[in-house]
Amino acid sequence: MWLIYALGGGWGHLTRAIALARIAQRGRPLRILTNSPYAGIAVERDLDVVALDTRAGVVKEIAECAPECLIVDTFPRGIGGELISTPKARATVLVHRDINPRYVESARLREIVAAQYDLVLVPGAGEGSQLGNPPPAITTDPWLVRCAGELSHSAPIEGGSVLVCASGKPEELKWYGTVIAELLRLDCPAPVRCAAAECPPDCPKECWVRYWPAIDLVASAAVVIGGAGYNTVAECLALGVPLVARPWPRMYDRQELRAQRAAKCGHVIVVNDPREAARAAIAEIGRPPRHPPPYSNGAIEAVARIEALFRSQCAHRIDARSAPDGKPCGKERNPAQQERDHDEDERV
Amino acid sequence: MNPPFPPDWKCPRRVGFLFPHACLRATPLGCPDCQNGQIEDPYAMRSDRFGYSRFDYYTDDYFLDLGSVYDPGVPDTAPIDFSEADGTDLVTPGNEFETDMTES
Fold it and tell me: Does the pLDDT at position B39 exceed 50?
């Protein structure tokens, strides 16, 4: 079994885990551990999602599953430090979303990753940078819950809408509600829709949509107003939909940095004030739609990389058994080094 | 690569945030990604990311506070000799990190 540790607040960790799981579960049993309050909304058919809310519960679940592969999203030690006391799986993989470098330093995450992880996967160029090597860090395209050909054409919003993605913390809903009120006050020329688990204050009920995954809605929108979390930014860049991004402070994620970098490379406008956000979104309506090439879903490569890690581990064991002295044949390399060498060979 | 460039030269690098794409610029001069060709691989360098300091949550006072509660007892120049068994001993998380399971 592959077990994905996706604890952490909001939608992001769970959505990224589901993106990977949709691809990975085709070849093996798989389970996702989450403490997201949205686990009941983010339903994906046939996925095994276990909701947990205590450190002890996480440790017990991992021990009982005894996964051959443990895939840990973002937090090498676990979000509560609980992974330090769990037994090591045959393969342990870190999904390296951006993480606060102060935490990296104070918790000595590089040393922990080097000692306990076999592979670091970076889900999008420039997303993670502070961990890995060793073990090798491999960058894939972003992981999305829909491949380019899978987007729903029956998403419950009108084409050309202004889509407000009100994810994040409950106290941040007020900001989004103010944006919606301002859009309506300015007689926004396009339908205004708000995707959120709960209807924000000041948002008319008829504007509110409770729907997952948001990427289906993004595909129909003329412009998105949202935070600068991983999924919102990646989905808008993938689909070429302009994003008016309000970076929120987080303990571990650097939304401000992600927004600023995205603004350099894509159509992303960084704002703080809700009225500024409304005006920026209205300015985007009526611009010619962009037609970016179909995006690649990095979750597919990620699964292939993990499978390659297993193959290299098998080869390593066979080498070890066939050596007369019981030591690995030829150049003694660990599986991580073999994988890196294999990549270099492929490049040559 | 230094100028002059062949007439049909195209930048071979991959650039862009999250979704990298072929650069294909006809010259690195003035390029915002590789800074006039001085950076061979912008994402390998990534000094901008590690040096980034705009945290909404963190003030100088906070880091001073963190320093007062966290003392790994190991000099910065110590060799990496971490093992799994050392895990819990190496870190004394402050009041902020690893205390809120709902953070992200």
Answer: yes
- Find, among A116, A67, A76, A115, the residue nearest to A96 by Cα: A76
Distance CA A26, CA A30 (A): 9
Identify the residue among B13, B15, B17, B74 best suited for mutation to test binding to A, counting A beta carbons within 10 A and taking the highest. Answer: B17
User: A126–B97: do the CB atoms touch at under 8 Å?
Assistant: no
Least confident of A107-111, A222-226, B18-22: B18-22
pTM of the model: 0.81
Instruction: List chain B domain ranges.
Output: 9-51
User: Does any CB of chain A come closer than 8 Å to the CB of residue B90?
Assistant: yes
Looking at residue B28, what is its pLDDT? 82
Q: Chain B residues with CB inside 8 Å of A53's CB?
A: 101
> Does B59 score more than 60 pLDDT?
no
Chain B partners within 8 Å of A33 (Cβ):
none
Q: Measuring CA to CA, which residue among A248, A245, A229 is closest to residue A277?
A: A245
Domains in chain A, CATH or no CATH each: 2-143 (3.40.50.11720), 151-284 (3.40.50.2000)
At how many degrees (to 10) do helices A230-239 and A12-24 cross? 60
- Chain B nearest C-alpha distance from A330 (Å): 26
Mean pLDDT of A310-328: 72
Range A326-330 average pLDDT: 42
Please answer whether residues A237 and B18 qualify as being in contact, where contact means their C-beta atoms are separated by less than 8 angstroms. yes
Asked whether the beta carbons of residue A125 and residue B17 sit closer than 8 angstroms, the reply is yes
Q: What is the mean pLDDT of residues B60-84?
A: 35
